[in-house]
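Subject: for your reference before the review

Hello V.,

The reviewers asked for a structural picture of the protein, and I figured it would be easier to keep everything in one thread rather than splitting it across files. Below is the amino acid sequence we used in the manuscript, unchanged from the supplementary table.
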Amino acid sequence: MDILILNGSPKGAESVTMQYVNLWQKKAPTHSFTILNVAQQIGRYEKGEGFDELVSRLDKAEGVVWAFPLYYCLVCSQYKRFIECLFERGWGEHFRGKYAAALSTSIHFYDHTAHNYIRAISEDMGMKFYSSFSADMDDMLKERERGMFLKWGEDFIAAIERGAPIERWTAPITYEQMSYEPGDVISKVDPKGKKILVLVDSTDESSNEAKMAERFARSFSSSVNIVRLQDVPMKGGCLGCMECAFDNECIYNDGYRDFFENVVRVSDVVVFVGAIKDRYLSSRFKRFLDRSFYNGHTPAYRGKQVAYILSGPFRQNANLQEILQGQTEISGGHLAGVVTDEAKEGKMIDALLDDLAQRLVDYASSNYVRPMTFLGVGGHKIFRDEIFSRLRFPFQADYRFYEENGLFDFPQKDTRYLEFGEKMTALIQDPEIRKQVRKMLKTEMLRSYKKVVETK
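And here is what came back from the structure prediction:
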């Protein structure tokens, strides 16, 4: 059987993900594996130079595997651009009817959203998506986990051989875009000295996203800083080289880091404006996000108000909704709101933009931040544990930041609860005390909360 591997690592063959593929290939010698380094060679595909080879390999392949490392809740920007090319140039039609699977390597930080994305775009192209395998990057070093991975590979091949029936999991996107015409601003918002940055991902001034950005900026009584993402210096996407890990210095010397430090970091409010492309935002937006990894796993938007103004079917994209919320929380920012052009009526969009402007200033002025949900709390704990142990080297800059800012907040450091728990555990070994404590649990649990209500 012929299996086509679409390698989504910008490092090409020299990636952890490809070592899993190499192992699978070694253990399945009766099958043929073809690897295309599509992320590493994205320049060729953008020019259309790799199309003939791609189609030739697809024609022979009975199964296609999307193989990639995780980059900020998704695939890297180079892989995202490859996927965009498939849709933009109609290449996706050549994938129709093929069995598909996804293989990723990561530390299990938002691996599910990346796999949800790959499944969705596969099904949008008419592929038969069978399953995903999310490997911890060190699973290959463990005998049991290696066995599970190889079993997954066998299962995928067996499914193709028997013609396994496949149900679509993701609903098709149904969306008809309206043409937004912005209206006048009735009452402008005083920014109260807050630095407001609007990052616009658009090259078309007549697009809805560009018009919404312009209308949003007019909501304020003084000028805000509007920057087009195409004007941000970025020679290329993140290479995953980790050379920034020691001291937050990126291998690129193109001005991106200076822009982030001197424009993004000093802003109180950051608003991203863009259009939904396939099931995410654009690869340009993803490149901007990926390149911020020179900050490592530290909360680069700490204390900032963050918002999104989007053109496209955001309401139908629960996976993107989760990514934006989780991404903002783990970055230390506060997601103040999302406005889209799905309202259809221009007056409603104007009203939503005005209200967003007011809320952003109010929140920034009062330092208001809602508590993190599981998305932020769980993400922080994964990063905390990894930076403290496995990723301490090479991510030296991360370790210093976490240590200096009290982010190594392990539960065993809170001796109050540990001591109380040990004391009470010992007491309830007595059956009579155990009986009394059971009766008191409900009222005692509320005692401190009621005291706050009464005294504050």
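For the response letter, the relevant points are probably these. Residues 9 and 255 are 24 Å apart (CA to CA). Residues 431-455 form the longest helix (25 residues).

Happy to draft the paragraph if you're swamped.

O.
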